[in-house]
Amino acid sequence: MWQQGEQPSTGRAVLLDSFGGPEVLGLREIPAPQAGPGQLRVRVTAAGLNPMDWIMTADADTAARFGLSLPAGFGTDYAGVVDQVGDGVTGFAPGDRVFGGALSRAVADFVLIDPAEGIAANEAHHTPDGVDDRTAATLAIAGRTASAALAAVDPGPDDTLLIGGAAGGVGVFAVQLARIAGARVIGTGSATSADFLRDLGAEPVTYGDGLADRVRALAPGGVTAAIDLHGVDTVHAARELGVPDDRICTIATQVDGVSAANGANAAPGALEEIARLVAAGRLRVPVAARFPVEQIRDATELQAGRHVHGKVVIDL
Ligand SMILES: NC(=O)c1ccc[n+]([C@@H]2O[C@H](COP(=O)([O-])OP(=O)(O)OC[C@H]3O[C@@H](n4cnc5c(N)ncnc54)[C@H](OP(=O)(O)O)[C@@H]3O)[C@@H](O)[C@H]2O)c1
């Protein structure tokens, strides 16, 4: 095993002794895990929160569906620096900056990754120069999900795309990627999201009753595709506006007749492409709030409130 620098014997980790809301999250000092054969150990510097973090740990049945048992860890998106490399690992060395997904164990000083598994829940990618760790820690789930949702409707310069829930973690990627693809974007949010959405490149429209009428007023020429990043309201509005089902996609729930995208099924290379766009300054990640790991409960409460604009990041 190769390792870098002084090796601490313990590290902090957010752990749960029971499943439940933010109140069950606790920060503990535990023995530092050691990289075994085929594994990397990453010294995590930042973790990005997603709804799935608190959804999968909210109750025992959901946790079991994700293969979690107690005591469980928390958080999936991470960024940091490789500090141990187990026998048999190629392509990584101590000191490499990396980011990716570590299913429900990312909010910790150290995570072990098996890069050869090649799955989104257990992965490391080199962080490009020009992408700081806090930004890198927001990319994996939301970036891939936005990419998968857009791939399902394939927007281009001839399209007017309606994005429901455009100001959230997935929305900030979806709006910008659709704009890069050349589409006109109309994004739903509350009235408080309007300026934020405009800055991202979307034309804002408020969600709620009468959505289809408000969109029609903004785009009398019609809407040609839609992705619903929140629930079903945007699907209903899109259908009312005449968008065919094969150009409508959901991510948060399933609707008969329209495709449901899953970030884990994004095209190979989608995440790396997003990181390259960030490094090139063509895509930015608005961070709504940053919290030290000691405030994990506050951070999770904010994220779970469902009105975050952009991403919530934990500093380690
Ligand atoms: N399928 C997958 O692979 C996958 C992956 C990631 C996420 N998801 C799911 O997709 C959903 C979005 O994820 P996310 O990370 O973007 O969540 P998020 O960051 O928590 O989304 C927050 C956003 O939702 C907006 N919002 C709240 N109520 C809304 C409403 N009634 N209509 C439209 N927008 C509303 C808020 O806008 P305002 O503040 O303006 O109200 C806020 O900007 C979640 O349900 C998540 O579980 C699925």
Automatic annotation (TrEMBL):
Pfam families (UniProt xref): ADH_N, ADH_zinc_N
Instruction: Tell me where on the tree of life, at the top rank, the source sits.
Output: Bacteria
Q: Which residues form the Enoyl reductase (ER) domain?
A: 20-314
Q: Which GO terms describe its molecular function?
A: oxidoreductase activity; zinc ion binding
Recorded hits in CDD domains, A to Z, give:
MDR_like_2
PANTHER family in the cross-refs: PROTEIN AST1-RELATED
Specify the protein name: NADPH:quinone reductase-like Zn-dependent oxidoreductase
